[in-house]
Amino acid sequence: MKTTNRQKAIPEGYMTAGEAARKMHITVRTLQYYDREGLLSPSAVSEGGRRLYTDRDILKLHQILSLKHLGFSLGDIKNRLIPLDTPGEVAQVLADQALALQQQIERLSESLRELTALREEVLQMQTVNFKKYADIIVNLQMKNDFYWLIKHFDDQILDHIRSRFNRESGEAFMRQFLDLQEKAIRLREAGTDPGSPEALCFAEKYWNMITEFTGGDFSLLSKLMELAAAENLDQKWKEKQDLANAFIEPALEAYFSRLGINPFQEETK
């Protein structure tokens, strides 16, 4: 019987890189890459210089592809998994990988939430403004539930916020604002007199917060007041603001009266 050229070139029990790649549903380039990375070298080379693989090589390739499917990098497989000797060591590496994947899932879930929220804001804005997009993303990362307010701010307010606050101070300001808002609602529900010492102390803290935010620029305060009165705001937000303002406004009036000033009147002069 005549032997073919392939039978002369390829010893029995070996397969070419192309055959091995087809068998494992990968590319020859992938096999070459694994060889360069020291993960899987061919068992032999033919007379013509072709890489030759055995069934044992295919088994090792199967292991590599299975671990890669679990999210392990090639470096992890080569340097962390293959050298392990005991089931306990392997189990620990698998547990570490499971934790890393869980954290990745959580990050991706958060990114998906932010993408969905930003998409809604973009559709409502009806304008292309990447500065506002960036501000919205930052506030979503800060877990600021009022990120949607940004689309209502004009450039002057946004430029002021960017120049006056960083992420840390911005988070601190939002916590202070929300705490004072909740306190105003509680004081109103308790029937606290807006002119009482407790209410005046509250009004002082609230006004200090406002002046900290505006830096004394009352034109910003006017814009914020206009924004608060806008009709196209979130209904739950407006309802809560109305409840808080029902106490905040008379408390501020009593506070300014005691000081003998009217900052709003000074603004219009």
Automatic annotation (TrEMBL):
Keywords annotated in UniProt: Coiled coil, DNA-binding
PROSITE patterns: HTH_MERR_2
UniProt KW Coiled coil keyword: yes
InterPro entries, A to Z: DNA-bd_dom_put_sf, MerR-type_HTH_dom, MerR_fam
Domain HTH merR-type: 14-84
Pfam family name, one: MerR_1
GO function term, MF aspect, one: DNA binding
Coiled-coil segments on the chain, per record: 91-125
SMART domains xrefs: HTH_MERR (SM00422)
Protein name: MerR family transcriptional regulator
Species this chain originates from: Candidatus Scatomonas pullistercoris
